[in-house]
User: Which sequence fits this backbone?
């Protein structure tokens, strides 16, 4: 679940620039983008990804960081070594997260990520999928936002509590 004090706001897609600038005035902002959208310029390993989070902050001191009406541009660092000039069209941004607020732009959310929203559907007999027709597992937007807010969340979930020892003590009381 999202943190209890986290404010979630839905906004129209034409308000992206204003919301991102407002969040940036408060500190670091994680912007969630669909790299499949036309005009997105990111390093090759990150292309064709419907859920790429990128961090922006005025405090990073990126000389070419600009937020324009139609896109965000900046030279970003990847893998702590590689710098790459990125261009992110506003159409590719579907959420922005600061420390205390998430702004979601529902019109821009990739269809694959809209899995937890209730949708009115007609009653249809379920189709049994053969192995070749299995659908890929999709991750909900809430899961993406949770993982982005805590990068080691998956590791924490996988960790198990240490097993209690049920063996007898090796010392024996002698009277």
Assistant:
């Amino acid at each position: 679940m999202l943190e209890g004090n986290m404010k979630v706001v839905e906004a129209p897609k034409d308000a992206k620039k204003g919301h991102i600038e407002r969040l940036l005035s408060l500190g670091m902002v994680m912007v969630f983008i669909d790299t499949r959208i036309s005009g997105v310029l990111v390093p090759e390993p990150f292309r064709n990804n419907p859920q790429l989070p990128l961090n922006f902050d005025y405090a990073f001191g990126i000389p070419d960081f600009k937020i324009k009406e139609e896109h965000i541009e900046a030279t970003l660092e990847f893998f702590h070594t590689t710098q790459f000039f990125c261009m992110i069209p506003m159409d590719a941004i579907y959420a922005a997260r600061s420390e205390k607020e998430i702004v979601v732009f529902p019109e821009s959310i990739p269809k694959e990520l809209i899995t937890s929203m209730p949708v009115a559907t007609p009653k249809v007999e379920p189709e049994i999928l053969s192995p070749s027709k299995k659908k890929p597992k999709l991750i909900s937007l809430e899961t993406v936002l949770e993982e982005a807010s805590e990068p080691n969340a998956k590791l924490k979930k996988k960790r198990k509590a240490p097993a209690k020892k049920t063996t007898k003590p090796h010392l024996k009381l002698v009277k």
Summary: The two ends are 57 Å apart (CA to CA). Confidence is low (pLDDT under 50) at residues 118-130, 151-159. The first strand starts at residue 7 and ends at 10.
